[in-house]
Amino acid sequence: MYQYNPTDQTLVDERVAQFRRQTEQFLKGEITEDQFRALRLRNGLYIQTHAPMLRVAVPYGLLNSGQIRKIAHIARHYDKNYCHLTTRQNIQFNWPKLEEVPDILAELATVQMHAIQTSGNCMRNTTSDHLAGVGVDEIEDPRPYCEIIRQWTTLHPEFDYLPRKFKIAVSGSVHDRAATQFHDIGLHLVKNDAGETGFRVLVGGGLGRTPIIGQIIKPYLEKKHLLSYLEAILRVYNLFGRRDNKYKARIKILVKESGLDKFSELVEQEWLLIKDGMELSDERIESIKSHFELPAYQPDAAEDQTFNQHLQENPAFATWVKHNTVSHKVTGYKAAFLSLKAPDSPPGDITDTQLDAIADLADQYSFGEIRSTHRQNFIFADVRQADLFALWQKLDALKLATPNIGTVTDMICCPGLDFCSLANAGSIGIAKEINDALDDIDYIHDIGDLKINMSGCMNGCAHQSVGHIGILGVDKKGTEWYQLTLGGSSENEAAIGERLGPAVAKDEVTKAITTILDVYVKQRLDDESFLDMVKRVGINPFKEQVYASH
Amino acid sequence: MQVIKDKKIIDDTWQYVADDADLNTGDISVSLTRWQHDKAQLLNSKRKLGIRIKPADSVADIADDLDKVQLIELDFPDFADGRLFSQAWLLRGRYNYKGEIRATGHYMPDQVFYLSRVGVNAFKPENSQQLPAVLANLHDFTVNYQNSIN
Predict the structure, then answer these.
(1) A534 φ, ψ to 5°?
(2) In angstroms, rounded to a whole number, what is the distance separating the alpha carbons of residues B111 and B119?
(3) What is the pTM for the complete model shown?
């Protein structure tokens, strides 16, 4: 993975010094609450219901074991022994003390980490495919381009005070695992007729209050023009994006209100003026690519016989392999998920002791690297098949081997009313209730691929509008209610979920979910997936049953 | 009042003249509206001239006049309005303006490093107590990932 050079290190060190000064000035009353808010948000620091919340950047989801140990250390010394994975592959601490945040950032800087631009109206952490570099359907590894974008977005002097937040995602494979259609800018590595790779550029997608699917603004962009094209989009957005209403300030509204044609024309005009001066040289691309060379895979890894033997002898292991591992482009290797969705723990949370343990496991089994996923799990990308059995046993002992990846209990869930000052309703409690109701793993496996996303408010941090089943917490006269949607997807067949009907009360959510699952199990055709069935029959069969029981 | 120009504290010789005020003596800056309205009169007055830009103004509108003015002021209504960062970049990078670009109004001393990187070379702080902070913060970072335009 990318290793800092002296420039990268100096930059994060100087950022820590700057934020330390800003925090001291705030605590002495020398800068206002409003000013400090803008400054702390740009360093990942929110003030939440109970305490500040610090969001640490995990650029495109890549971590090494040393970084994981540092995260464990921070959880232990500055927080309550755990942290939380976000849907943008970042890591959040829920209980840091404001006056200690500069020290936390200084600790992060020692392992080449930071919290720069993880919140605020600026360009955020660039996200990508958790299978980057190893996916069997990959066209080209997106990570070098993510790193080029990371550097360009970091402390960009012109675009740090945008109308609203701005998110970029890059996918390098046929199957979009990075939700690029729901980003302010989505980049897809594609091949042109001459067999060269470049980018298909999408703009104006987004979730939140107004979910919109991004539109193609450039079907094919040569790689050398990547940064000039991004700069042209950002300049047009910075100058013309709405600033009168924060709910209409995202680029998706500018694209929608001006129309894609008009918006594209503005971008094209700007781009033609800057593109020649901003070309990425082949040398620069190659030098960044050299940080992402594939590890030294064992050429005879596929010759191992023990893996198949364990599969036959141990059904629990076979189940885990089926659900929690995926194919790797190198035969004899697999990518293995670490499920952070154990039935009795809040979705996406992990403790300091688990973190220390997985750092050791990463060193032992996956070249010292760990990745965070959009669905709030970790993944070891490069595990030899011969090691999977031992890894599974150790993960099982750590409660990180629940075989539920991609299933109904692998829920995406925001911190909700328990932690977040924006939330209207709880989400962790509902997740636990659903988990308790779905305690039959065979039933869960029979249901198959079904993604539940649950957010505690309209801001939609858990991407409920693209959940196969979406659950959105709303406030009705001081009580918590939940709006259900069906049929959303953030993948290739991008879709925004359709509202099932009136919101349901808190104590009826789990029943509604189990009813939806029962309708699916009874009415599906052969091996039809939930999403396919919703497409075929619409929401009515579900609606009738959910509201019939009221 | 003192201001910072080219990383030095100097006395301010400029006065902003409101749209409804009489043109007084000395070096003056005016709004874009007044510039467009009184341009001929202003250019006849044989003194240094400046134009004060607000975030919604288009600098393209004054592109042809830039060789006639010695100052462009970027007037921040509040620090969160980032349009002026792009306006500054356009003035230097697109229209090749060589005169003074000065930040004024309600920006934060913590923003001056970025402003200096998009071509702003002078800063009028909200109050004179901020002068040392503005000067110091111009040196917040010694490294960058993007080119500066100044």
Answers:
(1) -60, -40
(2) 13
(3) 0.95
Interface test with A, best of B89, B146, B147 (most A CBs within 10 A): B146
Q: Residue A100 in 3-state DSSP?
A: helix
Nearest CA in chain B to A39: B110
Chain A contact residues (CB < 8 Å to B): 7, 10-11, 14-15, 18, 22, 31, 35, 38-39, 121, 151-152, 154-163, 235, 238-239, 243, 273
* Cβ–Cβ pairs < 8 A, chains A and B: 80
Q: What is the architecture of the domain spanning A6-109?
A: Alpha-Beta Complex (3.90)
CATH fold, domain A301-397, is Sulfite Reductase Hemoprotein; domain 2 (3.90.480)
CA-CA-CA-CA torsion sign (A240, A163, B57, A227)? negative
Residues forming beta bridges with residue A52, ordered by sequence position: A47
Contact yes or no for B143 and A273 at CB 8 A: no
| Cβ separation A155–B118 shorter than 8 A | no
Residues of A in contact with B141 (CB under 8 A): 11, 14-15, 18, 155
Question: Per the CB < 8 Å rule, is B145 touching A11?
Answer: yes
Testing the interface with A: which of B83, B107, B147 to mutate, by most A Cβ within 10 A? B83
Domains of chain B (ranges; CATH) run 2-137 (3.20.20.70)
| Residues B86, A155: C-beta atoms closer than 8 Å | no
- CATH H superfamily, domain A412-548: Sulfite Reductase Hemoprotein, domain 1 (3.30.413.10)
Is the Cβ–Cβ distance between A187 and A201 less than 8 Å?
A: yes
Per-residue pLDDT of chain A (550 residues; tens, 9 = 90+): 999 999 999 999 999 999 999 999 999 999 999 999 999 999 999 987 667 899 999 999 999 999 999 999 999 999 999 999 999 999 999 889 999 999 999 999 999 999 999 999 999 999 999 999 999 999 999 999 999 999 999 999 999 999 999 999 999 999 999 999 999 999 999 999 999 999 999 999 999 888 999 999 999 999 999 999 999 999 999 999 999 999 999 999 999 999 999 999 999 999 999 999 999 999 999 999 999 999 999 999 999 999 999 999 999 999 999 999 999 999 999 999 999 999 888 899 999 999 999 999 999 999 999 999 999 999 999 999 999 999 999 999 999 999 999 999 999 988 888 777 788 888 888 988 999 999 899 999 999 999 999 999 988 889 999 999 999 999 988 899 999 999 999 998 899 999 999 999 999 999 999 999 999 999 999 999 999 999 999 999 999 999 985 5
From A9's Cα to the closest Cα of chain B, the distance in A is 10
ipTM above 0.90, yes or no: yes
Contacts of A363 (CB under 8 A, 6+ apart): A65
Of residues A7, A158, A243, nearest to B86 (C-beta): A158
A469 C-beta neighbours (distance < 10 Å), count: 29
Calculate helix-pair angle for A530-537, A540-548, nearest 10 degrees: 100
Quick check: B81 contacting A, CB < 8 Å?
yes
Name, in order, each residue with C-beta under 8 angstroms of A448's C-beta and a sequence gap of 6 or more.
Answer: A407, A527, A529, A530
CB-based contacts of A499, cutoff 8 Å, min separation 6: A483, A484, A485
- Tokens read off for A405: 């990846």
Least CB–CB distance from A10: residue in B113, B115, B142 = B142
What's the CATH code, domain A134-288?
3.30.413.10
- Measured CA to CA, the distance from residue A502 to residue B123 in angstroms comes to 55
Write the residue in A157, A162, A243 that is nearest to B118 by C-beta.
A157
Task: Please tell me if residue B86 touches chain A, with a CB cutoff of 8 Å.
Answer: yes
Please, are residues A401 and A392 in contact by the beta-carbon 8 Å criterion? Answer: yes
Using a CB-CB cut-off of 8 Å, the residues of chain A touching B145 are 11, 151-152, 154-156
